[in-house]
Amino acid sequence: MTMRIGVIGDATLLVKMGPDWTAHVAADAPVDGQVVTLPDGREVKRLPLSEFESVFTTSIRPSEMDVLAIDPDVGFLAEAAVRQIRADIPDGRPVAGFASVLTEPAAGTKPGTAPLDVVPGFERALLGAMPEGWHRLLVDCEAMGTRMRIGGVIQNENGEMWYWSPPAIVGQWLHRQRMRDYHPTRGTWWRAQFEVRQGALAKITYLVEPLELTTDEDAEVAAAELRMLPRSAATTPDWLLAAAVRGEQTLAAQRIEPAPAGPPELVRLFDGVADGGRPTWYRPVLGELEREAVLAYLEGAPLVLSARGTTRDALGTEDVVPMGFHTDGRFVWPSAVAYYLRAHGVPPVLPLVEWIRAARYRLPDGVPAVALDRAAAMAVGRPWDESEVEAKARQAMVPLEDVIIDKRISPRYYSVFAEREGAWCLVRDGDRYRVQWSSDRSGAVRFDDVRQAAAYLAGQLSANAAELGIELGEEIPAWQSPLAVLSDDPPVESFAGVTPVVLEDVEVDRYGEPDGNLVFVADTPFDQRGLPADFASRPLHRYRLAGGAWQVVAVTSAAGGRGYVLPQAINEYLRSGHMVEITHPAHATPSAHPSHPGLPPITDAMRAEAARTPGGWVYCADPDVDPRVIEGMPLPVLLGGYKVGQDGRFTGETYLNEDYRPSPRRRGYPEPQTYFELVLGYAAAGWLPHARLPHAFLQSTFILEPDSTGNPRIATNATGTRLLAVYSSPRYVPQNAPRVIQAEGRALARAVSGTTVIVNPGADFGIKLPGDDLVRATQHP
């Protein structure tokens, strides 16, 4: 059974890995931590991994003895030989090859000199863990890189011997001793034996015989040994160097992908407190060359939090320790880390040193602003909220949006926070942002700050604005509207659709005074305008847009009503003459027909007519009227008129005919190809009485299917009614008609007494005419 164990001070805790570089321990563990409830309902304490001095696994060999190792605080005795295997837990960070780590020239004391400040602590832990009633103990430790093998033999006064697996804290003290024994010129021991007699540590023996490193795992821990505890090549045994090279080759062949960066880790200054109350540390010291390189890294990293003044040197007596925090995006460390390294030789925690080694002692080219903000929050103990990133990103888009509005860039050609084909894109890339064309990441430009990315994108859109413009009729986001609503009308953002358009010679209306610039297509029902209910009580004014083309923004309400946002308030246009308010004579009301086209623009001919009729009206007929068919100006074709003053000039007062009926063209009828189709369209539009149709029939030519004798084919339906099908033009003739002939309407009329003539059967544009009506028409021209 493999246990995961974490060490804080002299407490050894069972741990389970949590999210984002955290670990979970029991809720009653003697350490500070955030109490959280797991999905299964259990309460645990959550701690950052960086607060642990060590996190490792332990297992027992032979494996069947694992069942005895159930408590990291307690060892166990066994009749057969057992060995405890301790292994550091890989964290997925990239690591340097051992050959790239700075080392010192060969010099210094002999291997195996144990610092006295560590041995007493180890002795206390060993004696405290030793079972009662036993007077002699021999602990054998073999250590290499991230792995340690520990075995013990214990003897009582009767000479009886058992095998002993110590509690985890004993292995931690062995680890500490190795770290503090390490020297950059000679490394540290790899095998040692510790003998206890009569309640005291009596002997420490360091063995120099080569270890058997035959497996791939052995080779990998050898490479880790020289990476974590680098030493001069002259003092590195050949057997260790050969195994380490083999381990580097094995790791290179595996091509392990680095773990995702995750949140930054806060670096602790020390690992514990010594007997005198002074802080202490259990880390490998740095050689002179590497110390200077690490100091340059630590002090050169961006400062994310600073404060005036200094604090007391915990290893000295003066207030000289700087206050502040630095980050490289992956780790966050107090400025004091560099101070204690420079002033007292206290090395940073090993994960940070290994990270710096993997970076070849070079700081990143830049630290993203997101990482700086996240590090600052961690430095002050404030929980990090990812929504802060989104809020800053949205704020950074404001200047970009100004450029998009000013240059009228089409939404088809830009995309923010998402890739899109055929568009300039700004997307988040980890903690950075990149700008690229379309989905081509190979040409992307990356930025540490979203504001820089937004400025770059704004420049690209500005430089290429001529090719990226909005097309007329293209829907755009409401915020991109180049025009804003004035007065108290609903803003552009309240409408469902926003589209730049060009208008010319149209009538609009508005509820309210002419101090605003929002108008609607004339006669749009109020409930389709998306206006507040109380606007219905405001006066309704009607206007005509004059003076050529108008570039406006069309808005469509959720109910379907269409309005227009004008560049200026209506008052301005009334004063300049570009808009005309339409009023109505007392006897008239505005046309209720939504298809009324309004009055045509005033022409010179109309002005001349006004001069001839002072005090009267100049009336306007629909221009679709054909004078060959419609004489005069019947009421259904009358659009309205302009009032003429006594001076023979237009007064600005207008009249719209409420009885006007839209022309066939405005109703979408097909363009007439024959005289009959022209009259039929007028009759269907209400411009002519249906009584005109029989005479128009007589004056037109039709297409029909003949019978076997060549005469018109007359059919009889189930009720005995005689039917004759004719077609007013070739477009209505069925494609499967076997044979057709042409005949004059007048000639057909002589043969259709008692027959119903169906013009264009099956088509949307046709009619049924009684044959007897056609016969009478021939008798009364």
Walk me through what this model shows.
With 781 residues, this protein is of the alpha+beta class. The protein folds into six domains: 46 residues, no CATH class; 202 residues, no CATH class; 115 residues, no CATH class; 81 residues, no CATH class; 105 residues, no CATH class; 105 residues, Trna Endonuclease, Chain: A, domain 1 (3-Layer(aba) Sandwich), CATH 3.40.1350. The protein is 23% helix and 27% strand. It is built from 16 helices and 40 strands. The strands form nine sheets. Strands 1, 2, 7, 8, 9, 10, 11, 12, 13 and 14 form a ten-stranded antiparallel β-sheet that branches. The chain has a seven-stranded antiparallel β-sheet with strand order 25-29-30-27-26-28-31. A four-stranded antiparallel β-sheet has the order 3-4-6-5, with no helix packed on it. The chain is elongated. About 2% of the residues have low confidence. It holds the Pfam family TNT.
How large a portion of the residues is in β-strands, by DSSP E?
A: 25-35%
Distance between the termini: 115 Å
Indicate the radius of gyration in whole angstroms. 47 Å
Strand count? 40
**Class per helix and strand makeup:** alpha+beta
Main sheet summary: 10 strands, antiparallel
